Amino acid sequence: MPTHLEALFDTDDDELTHRWEQLQQQLELQFGRQPGIESVLFLIGVQSRGRGYEPRLGKQTKQDLIMEGTHCVFETLGLYKRVGIDSNGLSLWERDSDAFPKLSLSDQEKLLRVAILSYFDAQNA
User: Fold this and answer.
1) From CA 55, how far away is CA 46, in angstroms rounded?
2) Alpha-carbon torsion 125, 18, 117, 22, what sign?
3) Cα(26)–Cα(57) distance, rounded to whole angstroms?
4) How far apart are CA 109 and CA 95, in angstroms?
5) pTM, whole model, 2 decimals?
6) How far is CA 96 from CA 11, 34, 74, 75, 93, in A?
7) How far is the CA of 103 from the CAs of 60, 76, 91, in angstroms?
8) Which phi and psi (to 5°) does residue 85 adopt?
9) How far is CA 118 from CA 19, 22, 61, 85, in A?
């Protein structure tokens, strides 16, 4: 595993859980229900696109927005870099670090939580 990613996994699990629960509570107050990881990534993707929420989005568009959100949060960790915008208004991304190693589901979830919290830290700075 690249050294940069190793450092991300050194995040204290209890602290990560506490911060994640705080973020979920904050988003629950704002949106009326507690979101999971995919919902948070979707919201970030909608924000990144800059057009606001549009009702009746198709399944593929929703999946594209979740991926947009994923890239946005990974950008805050230096794992991806925005290199342009496509005709649908979604960003084009380039991996900005070594290839990702195979991660267990729990490590994938931890990396996403660390990235999401980093994204919100950067937004609130």
Assistant:
1) 12
2) negative
3) 25
4) 19
5) 0.87
6) 21, 32, 10, 8, 9
7) 25, 20, 25
8) -135, 135
9) 11, 14, 25, 23
Distance of CA 125 to the CA centre of its chain: 17
Q: Where are the alpha helices (DSSP H) in 10-104?
A: 13-31, 37-49, 59-76
Distance (Å, whole) CA 72 – CA 48 = 8
**Residue 118: what pLDDT?**
93
- Distance (Å, rounded) from C-alpha 93 to C-alpha 72? 9
Q: How is residue 97 written in tokens?
A: 């670090």
What is the domain partition of the chain in residue ranges? 15-123
1-5, 54-58, 63-67: the lowest-pLDDT one: 1-5
Joined together, the tokens standing for residue 86 give: 């496509």
Average pLDDT of the residues in 100-105 = 81
